[in-house]
What does this fold into?
Amino acid sequence: MKKNKCWIVKIGSALLTNNGKGIDKDLISEWVEQIVELQSHNIDVVLVSSGSIVEGMKRLGWKDKPTDIHKLQAAAAVGQMGLVQAYEYLFAKHKVQTAQVLLTQDNLTNTKHFENISATLENLLEFGAVPVINENDTVATEEIKFGDNDTLAALVANFLNAERLIILTDQHGVFDDDPRVNKNASLIKEIHFDDEKLERVAGKTGGILGSGGMYSKVMAAKQAAKSKTFSNIAWGREESVLTRIYQGENIGTLIHC
It folds into this structure.
């Protein structure tokens, strides 16, 4: 049998939680429908989902994101429950199984752990399930934290030899200047991963809710390119964003490997 293609879809916190208001089930439902359609075209999809800390903050009534790692871990533990419930419910409506996979960087650098994770993910995909991966914030420390799920998504793309990494964010892609400052900034539609301009224009400032910013997304695309994985950085609210990318439309910024 021909091996299915594999796509990694990473979704950011601000999108998932409607900028901190709570899990946006209507928007998630749209992505779920598109992922189910991708599966019908023999594409295995792995979700890398942020949002647990932000959802936990909402449930705990916190307005400001704490800096203390143990408070962040507690918020993640509370919020992860909401994320899992949302994904399970929405995929189940399409008779698709989901599986929660929580990882730390140590899991991907430990040879035995790496082998176990690879085997588990491959079996889940073979069963038609959608793995939902997040950093295991409740046990991560400063030394082993990925720091952002963009990096995690790229590493998953590497060890699954994914065809494509799609990073859905609250920005339309990578611009040639900061669009928050320069209204004349232009979207970069296509660029090669080793073009020095890519890293230079990405900047290093993250958002309030997320931890990575555009810089971490660009660096994730560079990491994904090591496994010959193409990357798209795109606005997650773009209509039918995943299926249109499958159909060959260039949404957001396409980063060639």
Q: What stands out?
A: The chain has one domain: 5-256.
